[in-house]
Design goal:
single chain; 315 residues; alpha/beta; three-stranded antiparallel sheet; 11 helices; binds zinc ion
Length: 315
């Protein structure tokens, strides 16, 4: 930490509430993996203490249980701890969480993550999804300025599902029989602005109404949308009253007026696909988890440490 930042930190200490002060003392004196995790959890809770059931801020302390401080809510009368209402509630083996978060940061396989943490494969799978649960909805409220949108496709996969409905079993991760768009692919709309803010949606189909419903809430009213030549984007822009530039690659154009192109969103898609490849095809129902995971990696970049992964997992 820079000297200036450290001075700022010291100056802010007088503003700590009693709960925050205690969490800070615990953080500074913590030793060992389980303690470290508990400290992280308590510190995050101390930042905005409220009931894990009803969100009321009228709470009182209520002893300790399984290593965590317990609270009682004066609004709903129920007791809770800092994990209540988070995706990590009820997960055991807290001493292995930091190692698991490290495995996520390193993006190792479920099997390797299990071996590192001394857990079985089923638990490894459950932890991956719990640790990433909060990322599914961690999307920017608005994308602004020059906004690039494009669709991409993931092979439809029912991996892990017991019953195959209306679809022949296929070797996981293998190529679809028909190239290009078909019902063997799940379409995903990726929307990215020039500040790097990215959002996406797995769509049931490629109907105009479906694409517009994804764009409408998220594209800022004063944005400028750049897309390929597909008609739906122009139609959306007209209805929403925003500017639109279509880059029609088939006409040999890739950049319009020096700045309007969809190369940022295309580069994002190519990073996403390259990163997904080692997973060997993920079940389509789990795609939002993996899309969220990728968004987190892009957003956090070098700041994504195991500790931060745990804090992000708490939602
Ligand atoms: Zn409550």
């Amino acid at each position: 930490m820079k000297t200036k930042d450290f001075q700022g930190l010291i100056e802010q200490l007088s503003e700590l509430s009693a709960v925050q002060r205690e969490a800070l003392v615990a953080a500074l004196s913590s030793k060992g993996s389980a303690n470290e995790v508990i400290t992280l959890i308590e510190a995050r809770f101390a930042a905005a203490p409220c009931c894990g059931h009803c969100r009321s801020e009228r709470i009182g302390t209520w002893g300790h249980a399984s290593g965590l401080r317990r609270y009682k809510c004066k609004a709903c009368g129920r007791t809770f701890n800092a994990l209540t209402g988070t995706p990590l509630a009820q997960l055991h083996r807290r001493e292995a969480w930091l190692d698991y978060a490290r495995a996520l940061v390193d993006r190792v396989s479920l099997r390797k993550a299990a071996a590192r943490c001394g857990i079985d494969l089923t638990t490894s799978f459950r932890w991956r999804h719990r640790f990433l649960e909060a990322q599914k909805d961690a999307k920017p409220e608005k994308v602004e300025g020059i906004v690039e949108a494009d669709e991409t496709f993931f092979l439809w996969s029912v991996k892990g599902s017991r019953k195959l409905v209306g679809r022949a079993p296929r070797k996981r991760g293998s190529k679809a029989k028909k190239p290009g768009l078909s019902d063997e692919y799940a379409p995903v709309l990726i929307i990215r602005d020039r500040h790097g803010q990215t959002t996406d949606a797995v769509m049931p189909d490629l109907q105009g109404a479906t694409i517009k419903a994804v764009l409408r809430p998220v594209v800022a009213r004063d944005a400028l949308l750049v897309s390929d030549g597909a008609k739906v984007y122009g139609s959306f822009a007209r209805e929403a009253g925003i500017e639109h530039v279509a880059v029609v690659a088939s006409q040999g154009k890739h950049v319009v007026e020096g700045v309007y192109h969809i190369q940022n969103v295309n580069a994002y898609v190519s990073r996403l696909k390259g990163w997904m490849r080692p997973f060997n095809g993920v079940a389509t129902k789990n795609l939002p988890t993996y899309l969220g995971w990728r968004r987190m990696i892009e957003r956090e970049a070098d700041r994504l440490t195991p500790r931060r992964s745990i804090v992000r997992a708490l939602g």
